[in-house]
Amino acid sequence: MALKILHFTPEVEAGSPFAQYIDMLLYKMSQRADTYLVTHAPLSSGPSTNIPTYSIDDSERRPFYKKCSTLLALQRRYLQTLYSIKPDVVHIHGSWNFLCSRIALWSRKRGFKVILSPFYSLEVNEEQTDYGMKMWKMISYQKSMLRHASAIHLTDGSSYRAITEKKLNARTLLMEDFDAQNESDYDRLANELMLLYRKVLDSDAVGQMDVNSDEALSSLLHVGMAREMPQQILPPESILNLRSIKPTAWRYIDLYSYDQGVSDILQEGVNRMQLRLPDLQAEQVDRFPSRLRRDKSPLPSDLLLSEDRKMRKRLNELLDRDEEAERKVLVMVLNIKHHYEGKTLSLRHLCDLYDVLRHEDYDEERVSETAERLGIHTLLRRLCQLLYETVYLEEGFMPVYRLDDPGTERMRQYMIAY
Question: 46, 221, 235, 317: which has the fewest Cβ within 10 Å?
Fold first, then answer.
């Protein structure tokens, strides 16, 4: 399925070098993806490329005493266009003005990937006063736009050096030796951008997963960790959902499971459900490094990762030597706390805890009582809620009643962050 790309430009003067650049680039991009153009200028003064083009400036349709388009009106019209297209990526060209920063913000806050391609250099001269500013004079909205972009793509070496030297965004790429007068260079640029779009989407696999993909992943993890296989391990609607997942969605499920260290569990579920998935070597997919350093190793159940000696001593005082199963559960909860505080928690750790809660024979009341005295009772309740949502842990196997509160939501958001 072709990618859907929305390109945005500020006001474009017909016949200008910028308009000619956009014309040629979008012509090449339209041969490789579903391409749309949104401009601030009226359509009559915008680029002439024969692709779907939208203007968010409605000043010509207003009475003479309301000629100025307010920012709120621009936002409303842009969001209407954005949701009517629902692109995979929003690509902003000519990025050094306030409206471009608002377009980036409005798109990013609604979950769309934003790529910036500044056309003008960051160096100041008379012709670029409206767009370019020296780095030490750059105002806050420009810095925020750069730092929060999914990626920055440049053809200007001076801008690339300025951004990388200031470490504003590690995902900054430069296409060297680009000649705006050479048509073959536009083919090279279009191919490079297509690879960048795919790389950005693959780098945030969880962000590309919809509700059906989430349910499919949970179902397969639940099946993959089952030690017994009853005839009806999944409800009919979950089985039907598994059969309806498209190859593109399976790609993101596979990448996310690899990021979270549960690929082996997922594969076991796939084998048991006798599914045929696209062959994808997740470790070989070209992606940006994750912003979070997740630990994908199995969660220890016999060794506390924390160096808190008081906690070790307290745990030994509260549990007898023959309470090995109870100790295993509590040690794993404490280790999850250690990973969560260190921002290394992964879905693998939750699955390991599920396996113990679901299959070990332990005293639930003893675990609940000891967790209360160790100060991790609320954490255990939150973990039960997450396990209930992600791998379908039944309430009969929970040592405490699950809790869904703001703390649970913070853990939930952390698990889907990238």
Answer: 317
Task: Please list the residues that pair with 5 across neighbouring strands.
Answer: 35, 89
Rounded distance, CA 313 to CA 287, Å? Answer: 44
Strand-by-strand arrangement of the 34-39 sheet: 53-55, 34-39, 4-9, 89-93, 113-117, 151-154, 172-174
Q: Which residues pair with 114 in a beta bridge?
A: 90
Closest CA to 355 of 224, 225, 259: 225
* d(C-alpha 143, C-alpha 135), whole Å: 9
CA-to-CA distance for 251 and 399, rounded, in angstroms? Answer: 35
Give Rg (Cα) of the chain: 26
Q: What is the Cα–Cα distance from 343 to 332, expressed in whole angstroms?
A: 16
Q: Residue type at 230?
A: P
Q: Which residues are within 8 A (CB) of 374 and not within 5 positions of it... i.e. 6 or more apart? A: 311, 314, 315, 318, 330, 334
Summarize pLDDT for 198-240 with one digit per residue, the tens.
999 999 998 899 999 999 999 999 999 988 776 678 888 999 9
Q: At 174, is the secondary structure helix, strand, or coil?
A: strand
- Number of other CB atoms surrounding residue 134 within 10 Å: 10
Whether 131 has a pLDDT exceeding 50, the answer reads: no
The per-residue pLDDT for 237 is 92
Asked if 358 contacts 332 with a C-beta cutoff of 8 angstroms, the reply is: no
User: Phi and psi at residue 185, in whole multiples of 5°?
Assistant: -70, -30
